[in-house]
# Entry
Amino acid sequence: MRVQRLRQVSAAAAVALAAILVVSVGAQMPKGLEGTWKLNVAKSKFSPGPAPKSMTLTYSPAADAVKIVVQQVAADGATQKWEMTPKYDGKDYPVTGNPEADAIALGKVDGLKSQSTFKRGGKAVGENVRTLSADGKTLTIEMKGTDSQGRAVHNVQVFER
# Structure
């Protein structure tokens, strides 16, 4: 009986330790992501379009989360600035200033890749896969979803330092 109880306690401790490791590793911003990234419009694809005139992403650490600031000049010249500070835990965090989304859930796939879900009114409207190149010079974000007009969107955005 005592041996069985020790096994149960050991198994519970192992599960707890694994959960702590996953949370602490998941909370860290990927190495090489920090800083400012500028959209290379010529290398990017926007469907249905049109492409923005410019877009800048800034990633910075914020305690156990990542602060993301997006500044964009749309094709019509309108400017947007939106911000979010999500953790890599798959939970919803607020997005401010984005007319297409009001929340984001962020998770890591591996050291160079992460996946996020943008939501509006609790409903998923876009799935992003963000991939940092091995040399840290290119950031590619592939987005699939729907816009506020209900149109299918498939963008491949290429950012450079």
In short: Residues 2-27 have pLDDT under 50 and may be disordered.
